[in-house]
Amino acid sequence: PDLVMVDISLPGMSGLELVKHLQAIKPELKILVVSRHDESLYAERAIRAGARGYVMKLEAGEVMVKAIRRIMNGGIYVSEEINERLLLGMISGHQPLKESPLDLLSDRELEVFELTGRGSGTREIAEKLHLSVKTVESYRARIKSKLNLGSAAELMQHAVQWVEGEGSG
Fold it and tell me: Residue 166: what pLDDT?
């Protein structure tokens, strides 16, 4: 294919993991991530994973056509806001600006956080992500540490609030 469009939310696998996998087996493949997830948290992650663009589903239509054309012509497409954020980070010699505490989470930690917010327990998350229960518990501990949360209940509360606030369902 000339272009692959990937959603970040896939059953049984993270879209970011799929992008990484596709890039590993076919580096020349052009990938556009299309998602309902907030671009301020996921666009940079998608680009780092190997995608050539990120478009929020809410923006479809003209934006989608523009993104596909730019990618097919060898460019990268992200919104003006994300482009500016990435460029400012490059100019200043620092990592792009962190807008949310969730930016501190790794891709896998963010996945565990989201599944927690959707009501999945440790064992269910382990099964969905093909990890051991112990590994999921380790991710949850790191998430609590990075987000300064004191308990599993606080983690659950913040995760649920984030999932609901993101309007994802």
Answer: 66
Rounded Cα–Cα distance for residues 17 and 111 (Å): 10
CATH fold of 101-165, please?
Arc Repressor Mutant, subunit A (1.10.10)
Q: Determine which of 22-26, 89-93, 161-165 has the lowest per-residue pLDDT on average.
A: 89-93
Query: Which ranges constitute the DSSP H helices of 5-132?
Result: 15-25, 39-49, 62-72, 80-92, 107-117, 122-129
* CATH superfamily assigned to domain 3-92: Response regulator (3.40.50.2300)
pLDDT in tens, 111-147: 899 999 989 999 999 998 888 999 999 999 999 999 9
Give the start-to-end residue ranges of the domains of the chain.
3-92, 101-165
Tell me the C-alpha distance between 118 and 103, whole Å.
19
The answer to whether 103 touches 147, Cβ cutoff 8 Å, is no
- Nearest Cα neighbor of 35 from 126, 105, 110 is 110
